Amino acid sequence: MSAVRCIDLCKTYRQGDQDIKALDHVDIEIVEGDFVCLSAPSGGGKTTLLNAIGGLDILDSGEVWVAGQRIDCMSKGELAGLRLKQIGFVFQAYNLIPVLTARENVEFVMQVQGVPADERGCKSEAILEEVGLGGLGDRRPAEMSGGQQQRVAVARAIVSRPTLVLADEPTANLDSKTSGELIELFAELNETHGTTFVIATHDQRVMAYAKRLVKMLDGRIVDDIDKRAG
Amino acid sequence: MNITLRLAWRNLWRQPRRTWLTIGAMVFSNAILVFMISLQFGMYELMIDNTLKAFTGHFQVQAPGYKDDTKMRQIVPNAESIATEIREATSLEAVAVRSATFALASSDDRTYGIRVFGVDPANESRVSTIPSLVSDGRFPDNRDAQEIVVGSVLARNLRVGIGDELTILGSGRGGSFAAAVATVAGIFDSGVIDMDRSIAEMPIGFFNDVFYMDDAAHAVVVVTPALALIEDYRATLESVVAGHDGVVLQDWDALQPGLRQAIQADLSGAFFMYGVLVVLVAFSVMNTQLMSVLERTYEFGIVMSLGLTPGRLGRLVILETALMGLAGLLLGALVGGLITTWFTYNGFSFPGMDQMAANFNLPSHFYPQVSLLTLFAGPAFVFIGSIISALYPALRVHWLHPVEAMRLA
Ligand SMILES: Nc1ncnc2c1ncn2[C@@H]1O[C@H](COP(=O)(O)OP(=O)(O)OP(=O)(O)O)[C@@H](O)[C@H]1O
Ligand SMILES: [Mg+2]
Description:
The complex is a heterodimer. By secondary structure, chain A is α/β, with parallel strands linked by helices. Chain A has one domain: Rossmann fold (3-Layer(aba) Sandwich), CATH 3.40.50. Chain A is built from seven helices and ten strands. The longest helix of chain A has 18 residues, at 176-193. Chain A starts with a strand and ends with a strand. Chain B is of the alpha+beta class. Chain B has two domains: 3-51 and 259-408, no CATH class; 93-214, no CATH class. Chain B has helices spanning 3-12, 16-56, 79-90, 124-127, 152-158, 193-198, 204-210, 230-242, 252-255, 257-295, 297-306, 310-346, 353-359, 372-399, 402-407; strands at residues 59-62, 95-106, 111-119, 134-137, 147-151, 165-171, 177-188, 199-203, 219-222, 248-251. A six-stranded mixed β-barrel of chain B has the order 2-3-8-5-7-6. In chain B, a hairpin with a 4-residue loop joins strand 2 (95-106) and strand 3 (111-119). Classes of the chains: A alpha/beta, B alpha+beta. The interface between A and B is medium-sized, with 29 and 24 residues. The structure holds adenosine-5'-triphosphate and magnesium ion. Residues 13, 15, 20, 22, 40, 42-48, 92 of chain A line the site of adenosine-5'-triphosphate.
């Protein structure tokens, strides 16, 4: 079964009297356990595509299937449930909950899922350590640097072991060392748990890890390289 | 702690001043409601009880129709024996027989139309406060004494004092002419102008003689230990009355319909005011919550994209309101309760109340009583009003779309 399947997606934004095709008849299928990098120049439609896969945005036309379910006609509540159980998001703008500390942000999804407190504590502690934020768990987002917030966002996305991780520029604010560590972490999850990754990025090091490289331009997929195939 | 509760709590303290202002509005209106309702209910209770104890009593046995048309011939045939039966059946002491008529009372200088009652000197003081309100002279103690007690205003109008004689002219039970001379034995001062101006009381033996009543009377008056207890006695009284022809049981509500009407009018006026207060608070809550929802659009976008359902987010908004409402309810009840309790000990009066107090034979100071009902009825409405007003902000959350919400930041 494919993890993600998009059929003929179209999304147009109106800006002034100009129509911008953020997604222009996009077809893509991603198998389970894949590690896909989406690359495109700024404005190429990466974020729009990730949002579409996560069921966050309303599309003009096309079908989106995630884990065998068609999601473009689900209700908001159903979509929320799907995201809660299956999808981890890392947003381009970190998007942490400002009133919660780093640890609480990381625990949030598990808490909504109903994971018991001690299990949550262990997991969040471990994952914060892994992203290099051991000891910063009690800080609120406003008290952290951009890179630290981004790592909290990554930790939050992967801590509950979703089957699909959608990451939008997860390394944009990181130095090469930390971003390298982060990618190692992704790769390891991908290897050991078979988590499917779809990562929008400009970062060459990230692309180096990709099993598949998808290039977009002006809302269209212009190149699709399966690196395993050679 | 539950995550929704934790978020709600944190969100409230993100803008402490706004939260306190909203809670403050609730506390203020709740305290006012507690005090006003306590005062009002205390007043009504006192008003009814004092008015009824003055003269009317809680129940009266009368001829059917007498209460609307007080004709001489609408009699209770063997009133004394009914009174005795009631005393035995209910073991109430406060049971007294009364007769009444309209008559002309003449002193040396003047004549006035008055209402004369024949009362039983042995029992009247148990069903009426008039005997105890005799401020000058005394209340007759002999059933057959040719004496009369008049209201203070009437005495002044007739220019009579203790020991003076009054000529009473009227018609007897059969319609014949009736006349008597009675000595003024006492003057009562009830504080209720109407009563003091137009009422006189004679011993019932003397009255029945003058007006040819024989053994009949016009009413058997019954007072129960408390207004709240009257329903306990109704059935027993009804069964006694059922054993006699041509008489019915009337309760205070039927005897003094104006009393309940006055209270109801006052109540609906007051409730309108309370309603306005509740609506005002509700709007201020709606304003607060709407602002705080709009402010958090971005955040709501995040938690929705993390998998929180719109329904749960809506509940978050309601929960925040409920937390504020609960604080407002408890603090409001506390403050209101304290203020009211202070007045319970020190009394409360407001301008113009003396007049009203005099009309209902009440003291000029009220002592509001706090009860569970008066403490929580008003605040409960404020709480419910707040929750209802948070529904709109909560619904707005439902309409949010994650991506747009995050972009709106
Ligand atoms: N809310 C919006 N209103 C109007 N146009 C939009 C909106 N969101 C995106 N677009 C347009 O859609 C196109 C695709 O945007 P998208 O955010 O998907 O690009 P991206 O590949 O993620 O770019 P970046 O690398 O800068 O993040 C762009 O031309 C952008 O201007
Ligand atoms: Mg983008």
